Amino acid sequence: MALKISPAFSSILASRAGDNNPFPSVSSTSNSVLRLKTGSSPSALVCRAANDKPLTGVVFQPFEEVKKELDLVPTTPNASLARHKFVDDCEAAINEQINVEYNVSYVYHAMYAYFDRDNVALKGLAKFFKESSVEEREHAEKLMEYQNKRGGKVKLQSILMPLSEFDHAEKGDALYAMELALSLEKLVNEKLLNLHSVRHFSSFPPSLFALQRIIIERVEAIKMISEYVAQLRRIGKGHGVWHFDQTLLN
């Protein structure tokens, strides 16, 4: 094997011939070509820094170290190629959380349909619960995207039929529905915290970051709905509900 070098470097090699030659397995030639002696290898070259101290020790051997990774690349047709350090417990927990988000979205959609009725006609509450339903579905979709990115399989499960009537003899429909929404938000937040405690999430920062964004949104929703519940309790079932509804609408 021949490596072309500059004339200046050839003169340096010539001046260091003999025992002081820093490249004992290398001989220089007059036509500025560096030839490796028989039996030597590129790894036999000793690199030297500017201060003439040898740099020893191999830190990274990509072609050797990748061999063990190649053994981990699946060859079966249905196996994910992207999956890496993603445990089964985490995959199952994400699928459960997706089901939770879709169930809550379904309940909020039923609330939207109720308040949008012509004989209820609280358009502000209808708008609020419709937007809440979309937000829950978006959370489910974010978890689905993350599942696919990590090489997991999304497995959608059955969702339950929600209530269709939200009127309450003592509280009225607005307060009852908002208290139900607050309870749902707290329940989903508890489920998210359980997902947060799964071994994979506690040891993989990118997973924590993706999940914490959803948890932050949930905490903000709990605070907002808590204030709505407090306001509706002050208002009661009277005319103030209409003004509250107009506030949500506008």
Care to describe what's here?
- With 250 residues, this protein is mainly alpha-helical.
- It folds into two domains: 2-57, no CATH class; 88-249, Ferritin (Up-down Bundle).
- It has eight helices and three strands.
- A three-stranded antiparallel β-sheet has the order 1-3-2.
- Keywords: Chloroplast, Iron, Iron storage, Metal-binding, Oxidoreductase, Plastid, Transit peptide.
- It catalyses: 4 Fe(2+) + O2 + 4 H(+) = 4 Fe(3+) + 2 H2O.
- Its EC number is 1.16.3.1.
- One of its GO terms (cellular component) is chloroplast.
Quick synopsis:
With 250 residues, this protein is mainly α. Helix content is 58%, strand content 4%. It contains eight helices and three strands.
What's the arrangement of secondary structure elements?
Layout: E1 2-4, H1 7-15, E2 26-28, E3 33-36, H2 62-70, H3 88-115, H4 123-149, H5 172-196, H6 199-203, H7 205-235, H8 240-249
Antiparallel strand pairs: 1-3, 2-3
Which features does this protein show?
250 residues; mainly alpha; Ferritin; 3-stranded antiparallel sheet; 8 helices; 58% helix; 4% strand; chloroplast; ferroxidase activity; metal-binding; ferrous iron binding
Main sheet, how many strands, which sense, barrel? 3 strands, antiparallel
Question: Which ranges are low-confidence, i.e. pLDDT below 50, for 5 or more consecutive residues?
Answer: 21-49
Mean pLDDT: 78
Query: In CATH's first tier, which class of the largest domain applies?
Result: Mainly Alpha
Shape: elongated
Radius of gyration: 34 Å
* Fraction in helix: 55-70%
CATH architecture of the largest domain, by name, is Up-down Bundle
Strand content: under 5%
Query: How many strands appear in the DSSP assignment?
Result: 3
EC number: 1.16.3.1
Pfam families: Ferritin
Main location: plastid
Family: Belongs to the ferritin family.
